[in-house]
Amino acid sequence: MLKSRTFLKKTRAGGVMKIVREHYLRDDIGCGAPGCAACGGAHEGPALEPQPQDPASSLCPRPHYLLPDTNVLLHQIVSAWRPETWASVASSLRLPGSLETYVEQEQGENANDRNDRAIRVAAKWYNEHLKNISAENQLQVIFITNDRKNKEKAVEEGIPAFTCEEYVKSLTANPELIDRLACLSDERNEIESGKVIFSEHLPLSKLQQGIKSGTYLQGTFRASRENYLEATVWIHGDTEENKEIIIQGLKHLNRAVHEDIVAVELFPKSQWVAPSSVVLHDEGLNEDDVEKEEEREQMLKTAVSEKMLKPTGRVVGIIKRNWRPYCGMLSKSGIKESRRHLFTPADKRIPRIRIETRQASTLEGRRIIVAIDGWPRNSRYPNGHFVKNLGDVGEKETETEVLLLEHDVPHQPFSQAVLSFLPKMPWSITEKDMKNREDLRHLCVCSVDPPGCTDIDDALHCRELENGNLEVGVHIADVSHFIRPGNALDQESARRGTTVYLCEKRIDMVPELLSSNLCSLRSNVDRLAFSCIWEMNRNAEILKTRFTKSVINSKALTLSSPEVRFHMDSETHDPIDLQTKELRETNSMVEEFMLLANISVAKRIHEEFSEHALLRKHPAPPPSNYEILVKAAKSKNLEIKTDTAKSLADSLDRAESPAFPYLNTLLRILTTRCMMQAVYFCSGMDNDFHHYGLASPIYTHFTSPIRRYADIIVHRLLAVAIGADCTYPELTDKHKLADICKNLNFRHKMAQYAQRASVAFHTQLFFKSKGIVSEEAYILFVRKNAIVVLIPKYGLEGTVFFEEKDKPKPGLTYDDEIPSLKVEDTVFHIFDKVKVKIMLDSSNLQHQKIRMSLVEPQ
């Protein structure tokens, strides 16, 4: 024992408690080097390589291990080295808490200096210790630090020490690693002009004071996909006022990047603006040409009615950066032999990034990953460094990898630790499995699914009772029986949150043995289920509801119309036909009963766990969201009422035009765009449970546990409520449940975006083979300089621009009230029928896109 401290503490009851704090140092931590006689078998866990396989270094010709300091580990290790290049130093080198390497903080020494000294002591100890193991091989530990003072002290103490840059440049056989070095500071990478573009970010202490006093507001920065000079900051907290603040103009955006947590200064109402209707994409102008940016900013300003103005402000500081590695392409510099190039991210909400690379010719035309290092005040774009080459642009494997990475979809194969918790095969239902479970194999239970469906979550039964009533049951795969709380399988399922369905690939939330076999309610095999069973009268009024774990043996009904968007060529897997989804009555029947089961389960778990139920809500949209819908309907002499969900549904049902049958579909599409996002939440952390879209006072997800982790939690809650399973601490911790909900909401949103991106890519492949196609379309939105159209045949949406590069600008008059756009002598209104030409524009490899141009009216 190193030392002990004893002190007395008074308890709430008035008593006195003696507390002893003892500090021990371990003497059983081995060095991690195989064959070390001094340490014997003390080291457990990861071991160092017997002979380090690092690339040959001109600075360190002897075999060596690397010991990085904390900052190098945080900022450089991921980007600059392939994982296999590092010896297992971070996890295996002797920690400065063991007997010989413990360092106590000295008087007047700050924590950072103490940590630096501790790492130097560990490095010195290792170099002495390794001499005893292998005198002939002369193994060394090289200390890597970017801290100048720390390096100087290490050299004084006889420790071989280099900066990250020095060491990487010494690896002559791997010159490409130099490109992966992160920029050390903004100051070292200032552009030569030195002209200040942005105002200085306020320090965190001032931001926190300002937020506390109400001078500044804290929120999440959301960049616009359509306009790179505009963003929205969603303010944190419960305040309804100024929930959403518009930021317009390069200087007011002030180097914030999408998803950063920022501090915002709210302007007085006299300086408020309306959201811009202009579509503006960054054309990669000259970095010094900020005046041209200011010219483009003038396009954002327009005369609008006062009610269109929104709270407006500017970013004054960054509270937390949420940078991540970004996928995209290199925009090679036009200057010969230049090492400085711009990187264009695939996500249009992310600014271009300035990087230095010697591999520009190799990386051109390929998808690469780049990380941001910093953003100086005098640079139009942030600085970054090259991380990884993903492959050729346009290749299906590469583009699928890009969209999965860009949407943060976990897609690595399941680890052995996860797979170890799967049931051993062959598996069968045992007597233990039947405990607290009803045998319903005598019932005629059916699943209704499209062809090729392997992850079958649900099945139904209906039978007449002796009293003349009907018994209807919804039977859901009992996934929670196989995934037990807290193990590696459960943790991985929770992390993934949802199965992601791409056009020709499925990223499972749970391993295939469960998703396509043991949990899938396949035809004519016994399966474990969780059943929700109602007794109803002939008017479908519910008389009784009960829940039970069960065993079923279902039959399969296959739908004749598959739920797919593309028909794939069976050999090449390229899309050969494109179609919109048909909704059959059978789909509708299944959907109705699934909704009913979800509502019934929500009521039951909330009765039992009023503070800990995982529920799903759909907030009512603010009235302003419906303005575009009301105006569009009014232009066709129709009235849409939006005061309640029911009045909205009723007015949509009435909004028919015999001369224009497709109008009702367009109105419903527009209505969907007005809606808020449905979210998961913990009942103890919210008061508003209402699901607006379903007009239900309470709702949850119970019916798809194979593909949604939320349903697994709901199954566990319901099982405890009916006495079919036992609880565990995390299940009744509302804060932990709220954290789970936060992750699930993020994963579901990202899965949705990934699916859309997959459809967009396969749409491009389809039109690449089709060539130029002309089709009828309807106008969904009018913008200041464009119209957004929907092509019913393909369910495809796109933008028709009226301003083209190097062509005379047409006269454009935009009317927000009607809404309409006059182009020369032709006026376009929402829902007008037009004819457009569709083609794949491959002129920009980074953003290949479907380009649409007007055919009729001319």
Automatic annotation (TrEMBL):
Any single GO CC term annotated in Swiss-Prot or TrEMBL for this entry: nucleoplasm
PROSITE patterns: RIBONUCLEASE_II (PS01175)
Cofactor(s) needed: Mn(2+)
Domain RNB: start-end pairs: 437-724
Keyword vocabulary terms for this entry: Acetylation, Exonuclease, Exosome, Hydrolase, Magnesium, Manganese, Nuclease, Nucleus, Phosphoprotein, RNA-binding, rRNA processing
Compartments, record wording: Nucleus, Nucleoplasm
UniProt-listed InterPro entries: Dis3_CSD2, NA-bd_OB-fold, PIN-like_dom_sf, PIN_dom, RNase_II/R, RNase_II/R_CS, RNR_Ribonuclease, Rrp44_CSD1
Cleavable signal peptide: none
Protein's GO biological process: nuclear mRNA surveillance of mRNA 3'-end processing; rRNA catabolic process; rRNA processing
Primary site of residence: nucleus
Gene3D superfamilies: 2.40.50.690, 2.40.50.700, 5'-nuclease (3.40.50.1010), Nucleic acid-binding proteins (2.40.50.140)
PANTHER family given in the database record: EXOSOME COMPLEX EXONUCLEASE RRP44, RIBONUCLEASE
Family: Belongs to the RNR ribonuclease family.
Quaternary organization: Component of the RNA exosome complex; within the complex interacts with EXOSC4, EXOSC7 and EXOSC9 of the exosome core complex (Exo-9). The catalytically inactive RNA exosome core complex (Exo-9) associates with the catalytic subunit EXOSC10/RRP6. Exo-9 may associate with DIS3 to form the nucleolar exosome complex, or DIS3L to form the cytoplasmic exosome complex. Exo-9 is formed by a hexameric base ring consisting of the heterodimers EXOSC4-EXOSC9, EXOSC5-EXOSC8 and EXOSC6-EXOSC7, and a cap ring consisting of EXOSC1, EXOSC2 and EXOSC3; DIS3 associates with the base ring of Exo-9.
Protein name: Exosome complex exonuclease RRP44
